[in-house]
Design brief:
The structure is a single chain. This protein is an alpha+beta fold. It contains two helices and three strands. It has a three-stranded antiparallel β-sheet, with helices on one face. It starts with a strand and ends with a strand. The relative contact order is 0.35.
Length: 80
């Protein structure tokens, strides 16, 4: 089963890396960039046919390792 865990900063948390990317995009002449927020994406393959069990395992992984729940949110997408 393949899945994607996307981790992003919670709104209200400062994102200096996103600001740096925003400035770099403007310096490259890319117009219309209002703001940039950066995050992390984890593409994970799990040997399981049980979608519920897979989502539960990924939730545990996200909460214990992949995301800092104080400042980050995560989203899990299981694709099959």
């Amino acid at each position: 089963m393949k899945a994607r865990v996307t981790v992003t900063l919670k709104s209200g948390i400062l994102d200096p890396q996103g600001k740096a990317i925003e400035g770099a995009l403007r310096a490259l002449g890319i117009e219309g960039v209002a703001s940039v927020r950066q995050g992390k994406v984890f593409d994970i393959e799990i040997e399981s046919a049980d979608k519920t069990r897979t989502e539960s395992a990924l939730r545990e992984a996200a909460e214990k390792l992949l995301a800092n729940l104080v400042i980050e949110n995560y989203r899990i997408e299981v694709v099959g």
